[in-house]
Amino acid sequence: MEVVIVPDAEAGGELIAEAMAALLRRKPGAVLGVATGSTPLPVYRALEAKVRAGEAGVTRARIAQLDEYVGLPAEHPESYRSVLRREVLEPLGISADAFLGPDGTTTDVPAACAAYEAALTAAGGVDLQLLGIGTDGHIGFNEPCSSLASRTRIKTLTEQTRVDNARFFDDISQVPHHVITQGIGTILEARHLVLLATGEGKADAVAATVEGPVAAVCPASALQLHAHATVVVDEAAASKLKLAEYFRHTFAAKPSWQGI
């Protein structure tokens, strides 16, 4: 696992955006897996700047969604489809036709999960999947003790997750109880996994992901099993890493994942 320690969130966003831009230069039709939340926003802003500067083209790129609420209309401002349209598709000038995501409005959720798995396969798989991490080590909505071989499926949100997400709604009663999420096994099929974590609140989860055992209690630890996984963390999120100095020495000058 490659661990790149950066000064702050903006530096992490720039680094990952350059990796995405390099991928798009090599493979204009690449599939970029994206995540919602505040953590990846510096990545999307930096990538938008590169597209506007002509450093990367997105006319043939496709965007794949990591997870989605069940039961929210697609046009609801807090559906993840709507969030990604505002934060990724529209700023980058990518057509909605190039968007891959599960149908959270369906009455047949298992069929929607299977259909999304099939759509990802038909697209040739995800080339680069951007991930965030929860304070408990979850990725996507794969909470602790999720199967490390899990596929896209429905998950029940924990009460804490609903409380955390209530800030995006008028009150907690409006937060859905269920989501569709790519499973850990599905996530691990992406060719390159890039996890971005910032802030001291993520330090324990980052340490467990990078240096702890591979265990379902920390779903993100499954990244240790991947052939090409990169963890980008700011100084605060890296504060619990025992091998922080090794990572600084090994990857600070020129991370090997750039241009791969």
UniProtKB/TrEMBL annotation:
E.C. designation(s)? 3.5.99.6
Class of the enzyme per the UniProt entry, highest EC level: hydrolase
Q: Which GO terms describe its cellular component?
A: cytoplasm
Residue ranges of domain Glucosamine/galactosamine-6-phosphate isomerase in the record = 10-228
Spell out the molecular function terms from Gene Ontology. Answer: glucosamine-6-phosphate deaminase activity; identical protein binding
> Biological process (GO) annotations?
carbohydrate metabolic process; glucosamine catabolic process; N-acetylglucosamine catabolic process; N-acetylneuraminate catabolic process
Gene3D superfamilies, from UniProt?
3.40.50.1360
This enzyme catalyses: alpha-D-glucosamine 6-phosphate + H2O = beta-D-fructose 6-phosphate + NH4(+)
Query: Which key words tag this protein in UniProt?
Result: Allosteric enzyme, Carbohydrate metabolism, Hydrolase
Please name the InterPro entries in this protein's record.
Glc/Gal-6P_isomerase, Glucosamine6P_isomerase, Glucosamine6P_isomerase_CS, NagB/RpiA_transferase-like
The superkingdom listed in its UniProt entry is Bacteria
Active-site annotation:
D67 (proton acceptor), D136 (for ring-opening step), H138 (proton acceptor), E143 (for ring-opening step)
**Marked site positions, Part of the allosteric site:** S146, R153, K155, T156
What switches its activity on or off, per the activity regulation note? Allosterically activated by N-acetylglucosamine 6-phosphate (GlcNAc6P).
Pathway it acts in? Amino-sugar metabolism; N-acetylneuraminate degradation; D-fructose 6-phosphate from N-acetylneuraminate: step 5/5
Q: What does the sequence similarity comment in the record state about its family?
A: Belongs to the glucosamine/galactosamine-6-phosphate isomerase family. NagB subfamily.
- PANTHER family attached here? GLUCOSAMINE-6-PHOSPHATE ISOMERASE (PTHR11280)
What exactly does this protein do? Catalyzes the reversible isomerization-deamination of glucosamine 6-phosphate (GlcN6P) to form fructose 6-phosphate (Fru6P) and ammonium ion.
The protein in question is named Glucosamine-6-phosphate deaminase
- Biological source species: Streptomyces uncialis
Instruction: Name the gene that codes for it.
Output: nagB
